[in-house]
Amino acid sequence: MARRKRIYEGKAKVLYEGPEPGTLVQYFKDDAYAFDRKGTITGKGVLNNRISEYLMIRLADIGIPTHLVRRLNMREQLVREVEIIPLTISVNNVAAGELAGRFSIPEGTPLPRSIVEYYYKSDELGNPLVSEEHVTAFGWATPQELDEIIHMSLRVNDFLSGLFYAVGIRLVDFSLEYGRLWDDDQVRVVLADEISPDNCRLWDVTTNEIMDRDRFLRNMGGVEEAYQEVARRLGILPEGDARDLKAPTLLQ
Fold it and tell me: Under 8 Å CB-to-CB from 240, ≥6 apart: which residues?
């Protein structure tokens, strides 16, 4: 990988300075975290890169603006540089995980309708659940931006639910991030980050088998195979075995 300036490193990705002004290179890692446990899901970065690219392109086709420019190689994407809105948008279709525990709902219970929740992006504060009042009062997003975010998130949910169901996968819930894209004096809200088994709960429609990061969080095993199966059903599994695709050493 060419030597370039590192802008930011998170748990799952690294952002590097892009080849042109206003662009970044987004590198997908194999690292995985479960509370105080760190591990490696071999080939995860390759698969998430391909899955996220595919889903972002499909969403762009229906008019959802995204930060993606193009995939560069097996582990990298060229993306537009955006000002990240400090919110994680959670869209829930089926009771699972934290939401199921919070309300003592049996996991797997279909929700009366899709529920959108907001979490403030702050590891120091534990990424707390917040309301629309918090979001607008503290200036994390304007009322107009929040309306756009809700509208886009529900459209994303409708489209991805159908896309996954067509390949035998239930989209239980997922999280999205958005950013402000500046173009001269104009600004618009676009979908950012990634969409992959790292931030989606994906269950087999017939068996309810878990096909996402929960397999790592719950120490269930078969994590690499689950990510590969999602890519395989979407028709985008890279040639060869993703487990053989080791991550190269990151360079400053």
Answer: none
> What is the three-class DSSP state of 96?
coil
Widest Cα–Cα separation across the chain? 51
List, in order, residues 6 or more apart from 52 with CB less than 8 Å away.
Answer: 28, 68, 77, 194, 195, 196
Per residue of the chain (252 residues), give pLDDT as tens.
457 899 999 999 999 999 999 999 999 999 998 877 889 999 999 999 999 999 999 999 999 999 999 999 999 999 999 999 999 999 999 999 999 999 999 999 999 999 999 999 999 999 999 999 999 999 999 999 999 999 999 999 999 999 999 999 999 999 999 999 988 789 999 999 999 999 999 999 999 999 999 999 999 999 999 999 999 999 998 655 544 455 544 444
The pTM (predicted TM-score) of the whole model is 0.92
- Domain layout of the chain by residue ranges: 83-204
Nearest CA to 204 out of 225, 174, 229 is that of 229
Task: State the SS3 of 186-242.
Answer: EEEEEEECCCCCCCEEEEECCCCCECCCHHHHCCCCCHHHHHHHHHHHHCCCCCCCH
- CATH class, domain 83-204, is alpha beta
